[in-house]
Specification:
single chain; 99 residues; alpha+beta; five-stranded mixed beta sheet; 34% helix; 35% strand
Amino acid sequence: MAITWYWGLAHLLAQSGIEIDDVYDMLSAWLASQRQIWFMPAVDDATGIKASILVGRADDGQPLVVLARVDGKDIYIVNAFRPTPELVADFERWESRRD
């Protein structure tokens, strides 16, 4: 599976306080079956564009949300951000059911 980064993503992430290495490490650990990811489909009602929301943990244990387009075995990273407290609570419930 290939991970593709859009050219301006590093700049956008830096403005949001997200380290691109955190995104890469989270996804790499998931692809190596070393970490679980909560994978949710998403569709933009206005455009019909399909994306995926991947919620996981960075190496430091902090929750992280990645918005991506999955095409076969390839992942195209669109954005990443810190989850809301409500999403963190939902994610932690999901994690507790997976253990």
